Amino acid sequence: MKNNLFLIILLLTFMGINGCYFQSNEADNNTINTKFVSSESPEHNHDFSGEDSHEYYSTTLTVKGDVRFPLTLTVDSLKKMRTIGLDSFNIVCQSGAVTDKTVKSRGVLLKDILEKASIAQTSHKDRNFYIVAKGNDGYMATFSWAELFNNPTGENTYVTYEEDGLPIKEKGAMILNCTNDIKTGPRHVVWLSSIEVNRVK
Fold first, then answer.
1. Which of 36, 90, 142, 175 is a good FRET partner for 136, with 20 to 30 A between their CA atoms?
2. All domains of the chain in start order, with CATH
């Protein structure tokens, strides 16, 4: 069991650091095709058009999966929680290239949101969970329970809703940022729409 758990966590970490999943609509049958693309691929970039923003924009964030209290959050919901101001930082892709630079922003720690939803642990030793943050464009980033609740990453992973004192518009109402990653790009999720908690099985 421990070996299987180690392999699953290793796989999730590889997915979060070295690439992303990109989903595209098939024109013929309206099905979704999921393929693995490197974070160095042209498909993983931060150039947004007005059309993209309109297609992927979401005003709500759902928290679901193995939680006691599923949530549907809005920017107003986040503002009622403990909010934190962030300084600007670079978005760095896996190749080391700087693809974007954030401005001063404000948001809520992801772990505070998860504590509000209450992960369905059976005891304090029940920690075998992973968390998937997903954007409306299909892009996903993963975290382990230990990263968020027993690691400095938990104090550096935010759902932001404001930039330079103004609501975020071009990249969705909410964005997920992990500021202490060496390569910040792979876990920078724009058009954020859902946070799903899953138990490792």
1. 90
2. 2-25+32-39+47-199 (3.90.420.10)
